[in-house]
């Protein structure tokens, strides 16, 4: 199997997590982007009021369960509640993702922010909270998804996908010589296609609701 050679941007020191935007409806939540080290640091998550983590990476798993319900189950994986509500979207950092995965990621993130938790012992979570979107480095997959989300949810601040990406590059401290892969072009294009699909879905939903109330 031939391994594709790609340009490698210099590795920069940057924050483990970066605040990208604030005031997201319906609970006035803040949104952060980070990589592996930020996502697995529970102390850092607590410090920033992050109670929701959306992991974009297919090749990165984080076990947030600190007190397994069945700690002596042999080869069985740990289960139980974690301190954060954890959502996993397994995207590849490059080509190979179906077009619908970026669209699915958008609605996963939207749903995580808007869920209303049942008041039962099996749901020991509060509604809302700040959210961290992560991948391995917080440079490509996370940037694509969050740019799409900002453009659709805060269009008054980010009227285009390009303006959202430019904002994230600044907040995440992504340097110009790494912009060629922050985000990867195929993920950027996937976000563009997802944006068009969201417009179609919302237009159809609006037409359906208008028809039902006519």
From TrEMBL:
Domain of life: Bacteria
Gene3D superfamilies named in the record: Protein tyrosine phosphatase superfamily
SUPFAM superfamilies reported for this sequence: (Phosphotyrosine protein) phosphatases II
InterPro entries: Prot-tyrosine_phosphatase-like, Tyr_Pase_dom
Database matches in PROSITE patterns: TYR_PHOSPHATASE_2
Signal peptide positions on this chain: none
Residue span, Tyrosine specific protein phosphatases domain: 107-172
Protein name in UniProt: Dual specificity phosphatase, catalytic domain
